[in-house]
Write the structure tokens for this entry.
Amino acid sequence: MSKITDHEQAARLARAMASDVAIYNTEKIKRGIENDRLFQELSDDLREAKEMWKQKIDPEITDNTNLFQRAFIDEIFFGAAHIKSPIF
């Protein structure tokens, strides 16, 4: 199977993966935001998702863009905007 070389397709896959992580980890996200430990709570899930994404995407994109990180920030923070946080 060839790797994805199109930036838009790579971004779309990253958003879909981020959405899945958000859907299946609502309690971790809530706990992480409330305790200012979001990335620690999701570290295993994020690591696994990024590895899967990198397996499907051309290294030119994975090494030279922030599409993956941006998708996760957009999906997780947007969906969790209602959760109270000590830093906001």
The chain has a mean pLDDT of 93. The chain is about 75% helix and 0% strand.
